[in-house]
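Minutes, project check-in
Item: structure for the 257-residue chain
Input as provided by the requester:
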Amino acid sequence: MAHLIFSTPLIASNGVLFAFQHSTVPGKAVLAMLLIASILSWTVMWTKLNVIRRANRMTRVFLDRFRSDRQPLRIYESRHRFEGTPLYSVYMAGCRDLTFHLLGSPEVDETFRARLEDSPKISPAQMRAVTSAMERAVGESALNLESQMILLATAVSGAPFLGLLGTVWGVMDTFGGVAAAGSANLAAMAPGVSAALITTVTGLLVAIPAMFGYNFLVTSIRSTIVQMDNFAAELASEFEHKYVDHGTRPAALSYRR
């Protein structure tokens, strides 16, 4: 009796270790898979969080620079780069396609300003091609932002079921052992049941952080996609105003400082 009284707190304080030590081979295999899922989900969450933080920071810098100048091609001409923000990818796609229709080439050189001043405006049909190029850039950036999110979604939905599978398997083995021994008592069943339950606990520990991370990242990514759509519309409006001939203005193009 004294041994039981003193050993019970020790077992309780090391319940996870006790359960793992008495886990069966299938249970440990499930735990290994859950560990891999946890590592992958935390890696995705950390990576995506850094990408979104950098994108938000660079987006503010880029928009301040873009809106401070009345010439939408100024950043493209100066070759300043704003890596890390999806809006810059949309901007570059639109500028490349626009300069191709205006000048016949998207290359920027020392004659870019002079050629731009002498070039005629583009037609509405050509502007639609420019808009399509920006829409494709929005779609590609959205796919890049959403990449690997399937790993988080899988961890959220699959980890609890994988843990439950390990628990059911472990309980089944425990009762099978009790039936084979022909005697049922708490001391004989406790190690097996404890080892079986650890997989469900581990599955929840994998799924719960992944769920919160997934919801936060999905909301942030959707916000960034909406921001890209709005910027593409803003840039298209600037291009329409300065470089598209709707038949009501002369074809000559002015490009002043």
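Outcome recorded: DSSP finds nine helices and no strands in the chain.
No further action items on this chain.
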